[in-house]
Specification:
rod-shaped; 131 residues; 31% helix; four-stranded antiparallel sheet; alpha+beta
Length: 131
């Protein structure tokens, strides 16, 4: 039986075919390849990206709060009592009645002695905007 030498044509680990073409040194005297410590870089980038996330979150939270406020005002007005068809672009006033029900009126707060809630304008999207 013949034993085949697998390492017959293989060179030692520290010898390359074309050492001048390698981007790193291939002989024993070449400078060692060491891994850089990137912990400082990671920490600074993480801090920056976390700041961006926090800023975006705060912006979205502010937008959400404004949206919810608009929603609640619109819900209150659309559920209030009124006997006229509001005109887009006109200003209307919201009041509490004697029975604590909410009603919409054309009469301004300085012309009437009712519990005033706020003034609103109907926009072209049929959304009430607080003035």
């Amino acid at each position: 039986m013949e034993i085949i030498n697998i390492r017959k044509n293989k060179k030692p680990d520290n010898v390359a075919d074309n050492p001048g073409l390698l981007p790193y040194g291939s002989n024993v005297g070449a400078p060692s390849i060491s891994i850089e410590n990137v912990d400082g870089w990671k920490a600074s980038k993480l801090q920056k990206v976390n700041h961006q996330f926090k800023s975006k979150f705060e912006e979205m939270k502010k937008d959400y709060d404004l949206l919810m406020e608009e929603f609640l005002w619109n819900e209150m007005i659309y559920n209030s009592k009124f006997t006229f068809e509001p005109v887009v672009g006109e200003i209307y006033h919201l009041y509490y009645g004697n029975d604590e029900s909410v009603f919409l009126s054309l009469i301004g707060p300085n012309e009437w002695n009712k519990k005033y809630v706020g003034s609103f304008k109907l926009n072209s999207d049929n959304k009430w905007l607080k003035i």
